[in-house]
Amino acid sequence: MSIKRILVVCSLLLSATSFAQTKVYIAPNGKVFTEEVYQKGKVTSLANARTNYGAGYELYEKLELVSKTTDSIKYKFKWDFLTKDMLAEKLLLDKAVGSDLNLKNLNFLIAATRNKVDLAKPTFVNFWFTNCIPCIEELPALNELKEKYRDSINFVSVTFDDDKKVSYFLTKHKFDFIHIVDAKKLIDSLGVSGFPKSFLLDKNQKIQFIEGALPSVENKQSYEIQMRSLTEKLNKLL
Question: What pLDDT is recorded for position 219?
Answer without folding.
Answer: 83
